[in-house]
Amino acid sequence: MSKRPAVAPAPRSRVELSFEQPALLVPLFGEFDRNLVAIEDRLGVYVSARGNRVQIEGEADAIARARDVLQGLYNRLAEGQDIDQDVVSAVIAMSAQPNLDGIVSADVAEPPKVMIRTRRKTIVPRSVTQATYMEALGRYDAIFALGPAGTGKTYLAVAQAVQQLIGGSVDRLILSRPAVEAGERLGFLPGDMKEKVDPYLRPLYDALYDMLPAEQVERRIASGEIEIAPLAFMRGRTLAEAFIILDEAQNTTPQQMKMFLTRFGMRSRMVICGDPKQVDLPNPGQSGLADAVARLEGVEGVATVRFGRGDVVRHPLVGRIVEAYEGDA
User: Fold this and answer.
1) What is the mean pLDDT of residues 275-288?
2) In 195-231, which positions are buried (b, 16+ CB within 10 angstroms) versus exposed (e)?
3) Is the pLDDT of residue 100 over 70?
4) In a 10 Å sphere around its CB, with 0-12 CB exposed, 13-18 middle and 19+ buried, how is residue 89 labelled?
5) What is this structure's pTM?
């Protein structure tokens, strides 16, 4: 009986990095070195730190990625940006897709060149597609953002809208979504109209409070600068000099989508967000989002950005859940 030839192990290499600003090493490494541990776990390398020097051991490709991730995180800190576990995970993911078509430097070690600044935070892309999306938010009059939960579709749109409202590019911010139950019947809801529809709009409120101090959100809502309303309230209006976001757009009918899109006024911008695979309509085949994209993709002034499960920036488990459910499709 012939022996199977032994498979030679992949050659291992070692590189060393040094960092000039020791004060940045604590946030770079993370509490109890958790950022270094995340890099080790995700890239299959061994990272050791001594003083301002970091040594990385492993396969050559993995070492190159780990080096770029560490350098990228350090450069972000040097520019005054905060990093957390989400940022670490995002930079690791982006290191596998380094070609960002000039929107962000092709070198993962460089901080992104596109960002959104609001009163409470500066937001940078956490995936390649987010970088493309953020660039589109600044250029196009109408953007369709398609993809699964947790990819930042609505969050980044709200951030861009807040930035433009603060900067005076628009006079109003209008956030809307259809009031459709997600697979259940909620029955009669007590209270006035605002109390009835607020549960449907809560994700939009959550994003706003993440961008602006609570008192500013309340004041701007009271003054009409920010309006949060169900889709049915858009009928018959012309929305000029406004940044308009439609969330959960997969739950519109083609008639509702046409009604919404034709509300476009002068010096306005629209972002339509939705997940085509999460339609809660009685007839999922009649989604206004899919119909609109089929009709308008490629039309001048309209951009379409598609996110995938690799762009999920919530807990890593969300990406695995999305992947498991998409396997049934």
Assistant:
1) 87
2) eebbebbeebbebbebbbeeebbeebeeeebbbbbbb
3) no
4) buried
5) 0.72
